[in-house]
Amino acid sequence: MCIKLLILGYKGAGKSTLVKSHNGQLTGTADEYTVDFQTTENGRIQFLCSESQVLDITNTWKYGTFMILFDLSNKFSYTHAQKICEMLSRKCSSDKRPIVLVGNKLDIRNRQVRDIAIDREFGHPVYLISARDKVDNDRPFISLARSLMKVPSLTFVDDVPKTSPKAPSPERVSSVLEQAPLETCKQLTKLTYASSHLVQTNSVRKQPAKNSLGESVAGSPSLAALGL
């Protein structure tokens, strides 16, 4: 599935950085990138991304979805995004093409944009990300893909939680030992015995010596020291 996406935002908002963080590949057209994602159950999705600072209302018909970026360290960038969102929402209200808002540069300490109301004002989801550090940079794309494909549970392959490998069952261990060479089994038996003997010896050493009355005697020699 190929989706034409227009990424809008003031200069320096991080449009190109976001696309390149997903290894976006240039097409034959200038400033047009392809970004591919593999989903868990719905095949491959390709976003054909174009970038622009301003919205050309006459060309919105070319795109199936829109992403509006703003810089969290630049208040004017946020105001610019609000204006674009207002124009775009008015234009696309009839066909209900998905629009997602993205606050970029979450890694910047000097954050200027904190009271974000643009999502409540226009009814579009907003995501705070760091395109440079690749923090949540796939969430806006997942949101658009879910809306376009009408699959609320759609997930990208890289977004699936990784599970740790399970320990082999005792039956599996026994099966491997049965097929192992005799010499290997002997060595494993020796190691097991030595480990068990060491634990028992340490346990004896930790027990304090006692006299006939059952009282602890400080400084009494251990059994190991007596050669027992």
UniProtKB/TrEMBL annotation:
Pfam families: Ras. One of its GO terms (biological process) is ribosomal subunit export from nucleus. Keywords: GTP-binding, Nucleotide-binding, Protein transport, Transport. GO terms for molecular function: GTP binding; GTPase activity. The keyword Nucleotide-binding applies. GTP-binding protein involved in nucleocytoplasmic transport. Required for the import of protein into the nucleus and also for RNA export. Involved in chromatin condensation and control of cell cycle. This is Uncharacterized protein.
